[in-house]
């Protein structure tokens, strides 16, 4: 237990301090000033925490509460100074856990317009890396000086390696099983027999007197690792609203590309289409090959993906987009219908992230659903199951 936790615990067990502790907490929540009604003064660590929060969430033009170490009335918080922001980043990492730090950093970038300051290497070295910060850096990629870009790559690589460590093992296990099961054969070797399916298929041959099933037909699966069994095309919308999805999709693309039995292609698009398949061995290169922002032409992107399909029955196309189409809507829908009619498994993800329900074009989503390609948001944890179902041509696990 740290010092703050110990102090909180002691106050919680002392009835004489209970009221004061409540006032302290309300004071931290309300932010001080004449309107908070607590009349409680903060000192020491509490005052520094309050100042760090106030610099971001206070009511003034730069945040509103007093900066660390200052007294008096409310004043602007972070301002436009890189040193001031760097100090503030150091403060919040001192006072708050990493999960809270990431939220505060994201809010600072959005509320106070600090994107430009992230172009400075000193700032990047001070921040807590996370998916949202990576999205911001990628949107600034083309404006970065070379020295900052190297630091940015270090930040991005730290996040990517963390995500790969978290996601790769389970993805390979789930998809490996799906690939084996999808490669069914009618004359399997003994070790390749799928006994559950074999027994179900031969229940009519049950001999009661012997209490056994006579397996007239064996069902098994081949070992998918021996050759390419499926082709997967990830088609990713790189408009600004899809930043987190681009990060996760790039990591998953690298994981899929590492599986010998899956031929993986990764395509990103806005109004133009870029094939980044040759960079899949390093998802950091993939991410820096994207250019977040701009318009959207889903039809053009799907036309390119369609041109790369050689084995429709063994191909899964995953469109990751909020479906705000700037291209030709009816042609986009016809293209999806044509691919499905040819045997392609088509999956539409409105988002691939942990950010909750996304904004999306409901009319286009309904039109795709009518074609048998339901559109839904997917978390990174659910993605392996979605891909496994698509590979096995089973109903997709659409969240309710």
Describe this entry's structure for a reader:
This protein has 400 residues and is α/β, with parallel strands linked by helices. 48% of the residues lie in helices and 11% in strands. The protein has 15 helices and ten strands. The protein has a six-stranded mixed β-sheet with strand order 7-6-5-8-9-10. A two-stranded antiparallel ribbon has the order 1-4. α1 packs across α2, α7 packs across α10 and α8 crosses α10. The longest helix is centred in the middle third of the chain and has 37 residues. 36% of the residues are buried.
Strand count, sense and barrel status of the largest sheet are:
6 strands, mixed
Low-pLDDT runs: 1-7, 9-13, 60-76
Kindly state the number of beta strands: 10
- What would you call the shape? globular
Return Rg in Å: 27 Å
Order of helix and strand elements from N to C terminus? HHHHHHHHEHEEEEHEEHHEHEHEH
Structural class: alpha/beta
Beta-strand proportion: 5-15%
The mean pLDDT is: 81
Output the strand order for the largest sheet. Answer: 7-6-5-8-9-10
SS summary, helix count: 15
N→C terminal distance: 40 Å
Percentage of residues assigned to helices: 40-55%
Which helices and strands appear, and what pairs or packs with what?
Blueprint (H helix, E strand, L loop, with lengths): L2 H11 L1 H16 L13 H14 L24 H14 L2 H15 L8 H6 L4 H9 L6 H37 L1 E2 L9 H7 L4 E2 L4 E2 L6 E2 L8 E8 L5 H15 L4 E8 L3 E3 L7 H6 L9 H10 L7 E6 L8 H13 L3 E8 L9 H9 L4 E4 L4 H9 L9
Parallel strand pairs: 5-6, 5-8, 8-9, 9-10
Antiparallel strand pairs: 1-4, 2-3, 6-7
Helix pairs in contact: 1-2, 3-4, 7-8, 7-10, 8-10, 8-15, 12-13
């Amino acid at each position: 237990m740290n010092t703050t936790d110990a102090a909180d615990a002691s106050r919680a067990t002392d009835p004489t301090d209970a009221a004061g502790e409540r006032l302290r907490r309300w004071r931290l929540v309300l932010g001080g000033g004449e309107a908070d009604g607590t009349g409680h003064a903060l000192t020491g660590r509490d005052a520094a925490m309050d100042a760090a929060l106030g610099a971001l969430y206070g009511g003034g033009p730069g945040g509103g509460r007093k900066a660390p170490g200052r007294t008096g009335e409310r004043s602007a918080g972070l301002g436009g100074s890189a040193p001031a922001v760097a100090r503030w980043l150091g403060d919040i990492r001192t006072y708050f856990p990493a999960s809270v730090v990431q939220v505060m950093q994201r809010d600072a970038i959005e509320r106070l317009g600090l994107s430009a300051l992230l172009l400075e290497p000193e700032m990047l070295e001070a921040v807590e890396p996370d998916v949202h910060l990576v999205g911001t850096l990628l949107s600034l990629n083309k404006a970065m000086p070379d020295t900052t870009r190297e630091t940015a790559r270090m930040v991005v690589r730290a996040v990517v390696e963390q995500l790969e460590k978290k996601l790769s093992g389970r993805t390979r296990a789930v998809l490996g099983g799906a690939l084996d099961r999808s490669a069914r054969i009618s004359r399997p070797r003994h070790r390749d027999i799928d006994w559950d399916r074999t027994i179900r298929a031969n229940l009519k041959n049950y001999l009661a007197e012997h209490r056994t099933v006579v397996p007239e037909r064996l069902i098994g699966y081949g070992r998918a690792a021996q050759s390419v069994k499926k082709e997967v095309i990830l088609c990713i919308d790189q408009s600004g609203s899809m930043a987190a999805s681009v990060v996760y999709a790039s990591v998953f693309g690298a994981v899929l590309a590492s599986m010998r039995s899956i031929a993986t292609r990764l395509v990103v698009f806005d109004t133009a289409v870029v094939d980044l398949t040759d960079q899949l061995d390093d998802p950091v290169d993939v991410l820096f090959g994207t250019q977040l922002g701009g318009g959207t032409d889903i039809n053009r992107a799907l036309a390119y993906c369609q041109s790369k399909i050689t084995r429709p029955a063994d191909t899964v196309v995953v469109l990751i987009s909020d479906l705000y189409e700037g291209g030709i809507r009816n042609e986009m829908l016809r293209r999806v219908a044509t691919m499905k009619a040819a045997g392609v498994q088509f999956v539409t993800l409105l988002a691939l992230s942990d950010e909750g329900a996304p904004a999306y074009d409901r009319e286009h989503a309904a039109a795709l659903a009518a074609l048998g390609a339901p559109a839904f948001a997917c978390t990174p944890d659910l993605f392996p199951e979605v891909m496994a179902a698509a590979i096995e041509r089973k109903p997709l696990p659409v969240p309710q």
